[in-house]
From TrEMBL:
Originating organism: Streptomyces prasinopilosus
DUF218 domain span: 74-192
PANTHER family: INNER MEMBRANE PROTEIN, PROBABLE PERMEASE, INTEGRAL MEMBRANE PROTEIN
Region span, Disordered: 7-32
Protein's recorded name: Protein SanA, affects membrane permeability for vancomycin
One annotated Gene Ontology cellular component of this protein: plasma membrane
Domain of life: Bacteria
Lineage, highest ranks first: Bacteria, Bacillati, Actinomycetota, Actinomycetes, Kitasatosporales
Family matches, as InterPro entries: Cell_Envelope_Assoc, DUF218, Thioredoxin-like_sf
């Protein structure tokens, strides 16, 4: 009996042993295997950077500053977040550039496009209020409340607001994507990249653009409808006619 009890305890101990962790893949041992691994890694990096390279090449020749951008009727300012209901510093810099262009007579109307998907979050109205405080008449500002991303904003500028040609205003790390996507949406764009200090947000934005370039390539290739389209709106034409 004692012998059987010991065997049962030993069997239980064996059953309670933790499973061995899975073995990690070993690096190739041969020179050929290591060379193929390096080649595969390089190919993956090239494929990941191809969309970003495409964006850079597609926007060449269309980037300007506030001082030399061609006179254009409409400027489009993309949303960039709110802090306590007010434009974030990055968004404020975009709006400052739009106000500067308006005061200089280089644009006539500002289309502010951003997110208003929640009652407690309203980018376009915050952008409008900021612009009016900085000298842009309210009648010269048009709001797009369904600019949920860059592609949606570009498509809606063309199909909803009837914008054929525009100055696009954003940060330098984003402006090439905006220019390229608006071209794909049928808008003839000029891009103004706003300078900002290279802080953590700037580096985050630059890194995010590498990932966003892949989606931009798909949007430009397949041209999906925006999340919300809706009927055409005459706001831009009315503003150009004097409000």
């Amino acid at each position: 009996m004692l012998h059987l009890l010991r065997r049962a305890r030993a069997g239980g101990a064996r059953r309670l042993r933790r499973p061995r962790p899975p073995r990690l893949p070993r690096p190739p041992r041969t020179r050929t295997g290591r060379r193929r691994l390096v080649q595969a890694g390089m190919a993956a990096c090239v494929l990941a950077l191809l969309p970003a390279t495409w964006l850079r090449l597609a926007a060449d020749g269309r980037l300007h500053t506030t001082a030399d951008v061609p006179r254009t009727e409409v400027a489009v300012v993309f949303g960039a977040g709110l802090w306590d209901g007010e434009p974030s510093p990055y968004l404020a810099h975009r709006l400052d550039a739009a106000a500067e262009l308006y005061r200089a007579g280089r644009i006539e109307v500002v289309l502010v496009t951003g997110d208003n998907s929640r009652e407690d979050y309203d980018e376009p109205d915050a952008m409008r209020a900021y612009l009016t405080r900085h000298g842009v008449p309210d009648a010269r500002i048009v709001s797009d409340y369904a600019g949920f991303d860059t592609w949606d904003s570009c498509v809606r500028a063309k199909r909803i607001f009837g914008v054929d040609r525009a100055v696009l205003i954003s940060q330098g790390f984003h402006i090439r994507r905006a220019v390229t996507l608006c071209r794909a949406a049928g808008v003839s764009p000029y891009g103004v990249g706003v300078d900002d200090r290279h802080d953590l947000t700037w580096y985050y934005g630059g890194t995010r653009e590498i990932l966003a370039a892949g989606k931009a390539a798909l949007d430009a290739a397949f041209r999906p409808d925006p999340r919300f389209l809706g009927p055409r709106e005459p706001g831009v034409r009315r503003a150009l006619d004097g409000g």
